Amino acid sequence: MSTMNDLAAQRERLTERLARIDTERAKVAEQLAELEAAERVLSRLSSIRPATGRRTGRPRKAKTAKPARPSATHPNAARGVRKPGAPKLLLGDATLRAVKALGKKATAEQIRGYLGKKFGMQVQPHHLGRALQRHRLGGRLTQRDERWSMSRTANGASAAAE
Fold it and tell me: Which of 141, 143, 161 is nearest to 153 (CA)?
C-alpha cells in the first residue's frame, strides 16, 4: 500500500511541476509577443534594418496561455508595405491642369483617366469630385450637365499668368 501512496504522491508532484512549467511557458510566450511587437514599432521608426537570421513568425502558444490581443497595427505594416512618398503634384493643381488640357466640357471620368495617364495619379472618384467642387466654389471651374470646363475668369487669369 505504501508503494501505491508513494506513486500517487510522486504523480501529484509531477503534475504540480508540469502546471508550473506551463504557466512559466505562457508568461514567456506573452513576453516574446510583446518584444516582437516592440521590435516592429522600432523598426518602423528607425532606418536600421533588424539582423538577418532572426526568428520570424509567431511564437507557439501553450494550451493554457490566454490568446494574445489582436495587433493594433495596420495589416500592411507587418509585411513591410510602405506608403508612397508625397505626390509631386497636388490633386487640386493636377485637376486644373487636366481640365485645361482636355478642353471644354470634360467629364469627371475623362479627368480621372487623364490624371492616371499623364500624372500617374490613381484618384478615387469621391476625392476627384471633392477637388472639382472646391475649384467650382473658388470660381476656377464651371459645371454644366456633369461636364467641367475652365471658368471665364480662370481662363483669363491663367492666360495672363503664362
Answer: 141
